[in-house]
Each structure stands twice: as structure tokens, then as C-alpha cells.
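Retro notes, item 3 of 5
We never archived the inputs for the magnesium ion complex last cycle. Fixing that now. Sequence and ligand:
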Amino acid sequence: MTENILEIKDLTVSFDGFKALNNLTFSMRPGELRVIIGPNGAGKTTFLDVITGKVKPTIGKVVFKGKTISGLSEHTVSRMGIGRKFQTPRVYLNLTVRENLDLACNQNKNVFSTLFSKAKSTEKNQTVSLLETIGLTEKADIQASWLAHGEKQRLEIGMLVAQSPDLLLVDEPVAGLTDEETENVGNLLLALAESHSLIVIEHDMEFVRQIARQVTVLHQGSVLCEGSMNEVQNDPRVIEVYLGEAPTVTPEQMNLIRLAASMAWADGSFAPEQKAVILTRLSEQFTNDSQHQEQLKEELANYLGSNVPLDQLTAGLTTPEEKEMALRLSYEVIRSNGVNELENIVYQQLLDLLALPAETVQAIAAEIDAQYSQSHQD
Ligand code: ADP
Ligand code: MG
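Structure as it came back at the time:
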């Protein structure tokens, strides 16, 4: 058994008697990508502060790669192999993207020697491959000040990686980013997770779904629960503390919405019109009251999970009515922006799993097709 890269036991951090972290126990295996979520004030940032040495524990210790690091300076902790990405990018705006990376690769040298000495070929190779990893090869020679916010975030993540840390800590990397940049950053983190241990703190639930494997939920300075995204999302305690109040969404509704979302995700993209169809149709299915529909739509949006195997979702459908509803919703979702090949494949799988009579399937599809061809003529 390999030892945990990070081990924290019964750790408490008090600020004037207020326990920002309270008896917190946490461990992580090397190579893991762990996402930490939790409501505001749960202690997420303090958790990173105590790992990096910015804040000292009141009780307990932090063990990294078998060594106690709590009590050491931030600088020492960073040299031992923990890199931290703060929320706002900290790049040199007047240097080019490449120069920023070169500099990060040469932490022990100063700015001048990096810029004016000839880089060794290994260093050059490292920068070239980093540029590729962060998707900024084309922008290598432009000044960092010209980058979009999301590109700056990726550059800073690249600079962090350049220092070859064993453990990367990333605090809310997609706050304020466009959907497209959010996806880029997500893909970058997933790529890094292949060769690094990563802790990502995040608020954006949709982003968490994109990247999360193992999720830890913090609440009032302690670990409330841990598990896959689906497990924690279905945990009533999480729903209560994280989503505010107890949901009116039933497990059947959750199941249906995930099924429809999986259909929409079949081609690797979840179009806004698909999302709108799912939320509108489902909320209409379950209530006639328009105000309640709006509330339900908002709640349902929290459950738009992806990556749940289809057979697992269809296993939750028992009655023919439920199956028909699942079929109707799924077909409508993929039909909403034109059925493409990948979506069709998943649709065929769904049909196999549902095993509804062929006439039923055809009738439902024909009905929805008619609706769409009609609305196109309008
Ligand atoms: P999160 O990042 O999950 O929103 P934080 O770790 O920032 O939560 O904060 C946890 C709690 O600790 C909050 O109630 C916050 O007000 C308090 N806290 C954080 N830092 C300090 C500090 N330096 N002094 C006093 N209280 C603090
Ligand atoms: Mg915070």
C-alpha cells in the first residue's frame, strides 16, 4: 500500500475562539483529483491556508508525503512540493506567455538571468510542452496583458506546473469565466490529474460535475461527507446544507433529469437549448402551477448530472409510464437541436434498455417530430 500524499487528522484552526476548521480529518492518495465543495464559510480557503503554511493549526497537524509540514513556512512548504493557485491570476503582465513560463521553470534564477541567458534545450522543451498542455502555443509570444481572463488562469496553472509540484491546490479556478473557458480549464485540470495529485476547491456545481471523481463536502469546518458526485448530491445532508433547503424534487424526478442530461451529453456537448428543454418539460410534467414550475426548474438544474451510465439510470424506471416519460423527454432533448450521429447511438442504446413496444416508440417520436416540424414552419 502506498502511503497517502496528504494526511490530516483531528485538525482544528481557531480564530479568536471561532473554529474555522473543527476536528477535520482528511486524507488523499497520490495521483488523486479531489474536489472540495461546501457552502460559504465552510472553511475551504482556511483548509488550503493550513496546508500551505499560511495559517497554523491550533490543534492537530498536516502530514505531506510522510512528513509533518504544519509549522513550516509557506516558502518551505512550497519547496517541498505543494503549489497553490490563487483565485486571481498572478502572472507578469508585461512579459510574454513564453517568458512567464520560462521564469516559472527557473524559480531559482532571477528575472534577468532567465530573460537574457540562453535557456538550456531541456528547459526549452519543457516550455514547449507546457504551452501545448495549457493550449497557449499560438499565443506564446504575445504579452500576458493581452490574454483573456480564462487564458491567464490557464497560464498561471501552467506556471504552477512548471515548478513540478507533487500536489497542486487550486482555489475556484473558473470563477468569472465564460462557459467555453470553464470547459477549457476543466479539461486542463483533467489532463494534469493524469500526472499530479490535485485538490480543487469549487463553487460552480456544473464545473464540479465536469471534473469531479471524488468529492469532499465541508460544512462548519468539518467533513460532512465524501463520495462520487452522484453520491454526495443524493445525500440528504448535503442537499440540506449545500443547496439551502430540503428539495421538493423526488428521486424519480432526479433520475429522469439525469437520463435526459446524459442524452444531451451524448455528443460531448450540452447545448443551452437542450438544457432549456429538459428543465421546462420536466417542470411542466410535475406541476401545473407556473410559479412552482420556475422553482422546480431552478432546483432541477442542480441535478443535471452527467456521466451516469445509462443502464444505471434506466434501472430506476419501473412502470411503463415512467419509461415512456423518459423516452419522450430524451427524444425531445436530442431533437431540440437536431439529432446527430452520436446522440442517435445513445438513443438506440436507450431504446434497447427501455424495451418499450415498437409502436409506442414510433408514436412518441412521430408526435415530437411533428411538433418540431410545425414550429419550424412558423
Ligand atoms: P470558505 O472558503 O469555505 O468560504 P473560509 O475558510 O474562508 O470559508 O472561512 C471559514 C470561516 O472562518 C468563516 O466564518 C470566516 O469568516 C472565518 N475566518 C476565515 N479566516 C479568518 C480570520 N483570519 N480571522 C477570523 N475569522 C476567519
Ligand atoms: Mg473561500
